[in-house]
Amino acid sequence: MRARKPKELTYAEDALSRAYYKRDPTAAFDPIDCESTRTHYVTAFARRQLEVMRERKMNEREALTVVEREQADERKRFAEARREGAPISDDERVLTPSASDRDVEHGSLIEAIQAEEEARWKEHVEALKVKVGETAEEASLRVAADRAPRRRK
């Protein structure tokens, strides 16, 4: 039996979401919570941009600057609240990722994990240096010599 292929479902904000991911490819690495009813911030950004385009009769680029300004204001508001010691609930975030999705200091969760691993590695190397009793310069020269490709005879 042959059935017609169903039409591809597309939403008005799909193109705007794709454009967001082109501008910020690291956003694709942010997790999407499928159990939550909260809209992902990229989708919310695209929907807000579409809303601004329709309400104010703006083109895509003009609406983008408006929504990016709103996103920057939201980031600032959350950063100030965090600095003051009274953080705002992540449920109030709309255009920015939640603190669990992105680390404020590093930019993304992946970068935070990488920084943590590098810090652990440095601690490990320092502990080995103390154990062996060599200086940092001696250790770096030894490691560089060990990693250098050996010449064939």
Please provide a written account of the structure.
- By secondary structure, the protein is an all-alpha fold.
- The chain has two domains: 11-102, no CATH class; 105-153, no CATH class.
- 56% of the residues lie in helices and 0% in strands.
- It has five helices and no strands.
- The chain has helices at residues 14-23, 41-56, 60-83, 109-132, 136-147.
- Helix 1 crosses helix 2 (41-56) and helix 2 packs across helix 3 (60-83).
- It is elongated.
Helix content: 55-70%
Query: Number of DSSP strands?
Result: 0
| H-E order | HHHHH
Rounded mean pLDDT score: 83
What gross morphology would you assign? elongated
Note the total helix count. Answer: 5
User: Structural class of the secondary structure composition?
Assistant: mainly alpha
What percent strand? under 5%
Q: How large is the radius of gyration?
A: 24 Å
Topology (elements, then pairings):
Layout: H1 14-23, H2 41-56, H3 60-83, H4 109-132, H5 136-147
Helix pairs in contact: 1-2, 2-3
Question: Which short descriptors sum up this protein?
Answer:
153 residues, 5 helices
Question: What's a quick, concise take on this entry?
Answer:
This protein has 153 residues and is an all-alpha fold.
